[in-house]
Specification:
It is globular, with a radius of gyration of 18 Å. It has 6 helices and 2 strands, in the order βααααααβ. The longest helix is centred in the last third of the chain and has 29 residues. By secondary structure, it is mostly helical. It has a single domain, classed as Arp2/3 complex 21 kDa subunit ARPC3. A two-stranded antiparallel sheet has the order 1-2.
Length: about 180
């Protein structure tokens, strides 16, 4: 058998993942919950980012393109509430794109792996945010403080993502399915 005959064995994969419209609604609820209850969830000067959990977990299941689309929506909603001039939109879009791209390379059903990916998403998102803000003229003298708060926020948000994933498997059925057609 020649090596050229392997092309006949390719298959098409159809992924039926989470729908975008209900996820947009849940993301709006996450933004408002994060805004309203942030002062009650303060730990070491940071709060967990519910938006990051939503965007990263959706990007892992739905792919990079749909994750970036959710990132644009969630980031623009955060920008409208924070008045940051587009920095959250850019950062959240790139985070959704990166999470969806990275998710193709590993088995994403482990809770610890997903919690770590959410924590890395926080680090990427905050790094891009502060780069954009420094380009807009934000003072650079607070870098150590921002790194410290980013690392605490990554740890807290990763733990919140683990808690959410455990509760989700206990109470919610996953409807994502991959079908392969030869």
């Amino acid at each position: 058998m020649s090596s050229f005959s392997r092309n006949k064995f390719r298959s098409i994969e159809v992924v039926s993942g989470p729908a975008l419209v209900p996820t947009l609604g849940l993301t709006v609820l996450a933004v408002f919950a994060q805004t309203l209850f942030a002062r009650f969830a303060l730990f070491h000067g940071t709060v967990p980012s519910l938006v990051t959990i939503a965007v990263v977990l959706y990007s892992v299941k739905a792919g990079a393109g749909r994750g970036a689309l959710l990132g644009v929506f969630a980031g623009s909603l955060e920008d409208s509430l924070a008045g940051s001039g587009g920095a959250w939109t850019i950062a959240t879009t790139l985070m959704g794109l990166a999470a969806g791209t990275v998710a193709r390379g590993f088995f994403s059903d482990g809770f610890v792996m997903l919690g770590g990916l959410v924590a890395l998403g926080i680090v990427l998102r905050d790094t891009v945010f502060w780069v954009v803000m420094s380009l807009e003229g934000y003072p650079r003298g607070l870098a150590r403080t921002h790194v410290h708060s980013t690392l605490w926020q990554a740890a807290i948000t990763g733990l919140c993502a683990l808690l959410y994933l455990v509760l989700r498997t206990r109470f919610i059925a996953d409807r994502t399915a991959v079908e392969r057609f030869p």
